[in-house]
Write a structure and sequence with these properties.
Shape: globular
Distance between the termini: 35 Å
Structural class: mainly alpha
Low-confidence stretches: none
Helix content: 55-70%
Amino acid sequence: LDHVIGEIDYTGYPDDRPWQEQLKDLIRAARATFSAHRDIARASLGRIPSGPNSLVSMETLLAVLRRSNLSDQVIAYAGDLIGLVIGAASYEESLFAESGLDFEEFMRYIEEFRAYLGSLPPDRFPLLVELAGPLTHVDPGQDARFEFMLDVIVRGLDSLRD
């Protein structure tokens, strides 16, 4: 895991851009690196990476977050949250890659699940029926979903600034 984390390019961070942009770029870079190594993200879940490359990674992330005027405790929690999001999103993506399903098979599964949700009794599950489409929307590259997560994290952190 530490070797893979060492492949992430942290050169030039932090820089003069807004901290929000830098944070998103760092998270995207980590996701791309983890994705290039299939299920390496599994190794990050439930562990505190402490190798030399991991320390550089954490220091860089904290340096970018420090520019946000967030409290020290919020910065610490944010570092933990960001690590969890990167690991979980990358691991989930690796599961699809390992499943052997091609995209068409996956879409058939999603369409069946959407139909199942739509067929539930609306008096008991009105929101599952009503939101069956949005709940099962698939972005082929998963970038819209991931970018949504990044926006939620950054906007949430921004709302906690002193």
